[in-house]
Automatic annotation (TrEMBL):
Name recorded for this polypeptide: Ubiquitin-like protein
Organism whose genome encodes this protein: Glarea lozoyensis (strain ATCC 20868 / MF5171)
A GO molecular-function annotation: proteasome binding
Spans annotated as Disordered: 90-120
PANTHER family the UniProt entry points to: DNA-DEPENDENT METALLOPROTEASE WSS1 HOMOLOG 2 (PTHR47795:SF1), UBIQUITIN AND WLM DOMAIN-CONTAINING METALLOPROTEASE SPCC1442.07C (PTHR47795)
Location of the WLM domain: 123-317
UniProt xrefs under InterPro entries: Ubiquitin-like_domsf, WLM_dom
Amino acid sequence: MSTDAQDLVSITVAHLGKQHTLSLPKDATITDLSEAINDELNVPPANQKITIPKTPMLKFPFKDPNLPLSPTPGYIVKLMGSTAKEAASISTAQEEASRRVNPRAGRSNQQKVSAYKTVDHKKAHEEALYTFQTLKPLPYLPNPSKSLQFLERLKNDVGIKKTMRDHQFTVGLLTEMNPVEHTQSNHEGTSRTLGLNRNQGEVIELRLRTDAYDGYRDYKTIRNTLCHELAHNVHGPHDRKFWDLCKQIEKEVDLATSSGRTIGEREEYYDGGHGEDVDDHGGWTGGEFVVGGSVAGGGGGLSRREVLAKAAEERMKRLREQQGGEGSGTGS
């Protein structure tokens, strides 16, 4: 972001019936404006409700922290929110009023005021910036809402959140991949791509589902695959630097998860199918995690069309087996 004096522009902020002029760079973002409001008007980000021309009301943490302001002549930003001093005064007045009515209520309100004062705004800002900006399941596969829940669990995983803050990773899109489109067979067997990183974090795809779409894979396996793909944000080739970073990220995620887990919380996410160990088997190519060996070409390989047909046959076979076993209550 430019900081030369000649590149500064004046932005008018209307707050509590008064107008304030803030100087910001021409390429300033909503985050820059929020920080300037905090510094010059003493309105903390958590209290701010900002309306800029032709844009809905914005509240912290911002959905798009890098939203450009693009000020024009007559550009006025409307701000709602109490200053830190006003918020403290209101809390103190409420506490005094409650204490007069009920002496024990004062202790409860004091706890609320203390909790307010300990909000980590820096951490909240970083979590809004270093994260997965968009989550998207495949709408044409069964139960996309369940895939979205799986993606949300990955995004909110305490270990994933911490490592993304620590390494300043921002991923534009986290989505799932269609198992059929990422399965190849040849004379050596079947290989399955578990993860894919496009353009160093622009898009990360993860294989969430089992081959027959009848369930989801082991959560920890998919999370380890995500760790691998996050390492590709920094290193493309699978060289020593890549593997060192990959193992570091895995350890960081495991440590943060184990320290933050509550009693009785399950680590695995299991819904049909079997979990897989995250092993390389020589199948990592071009940012993709492939299980089951290499996908080298050769005389015995199947075409993509043949793979799709074979997968459809397998699904039909599984379906018939499941229908035949309904009476005994067992499944594949």
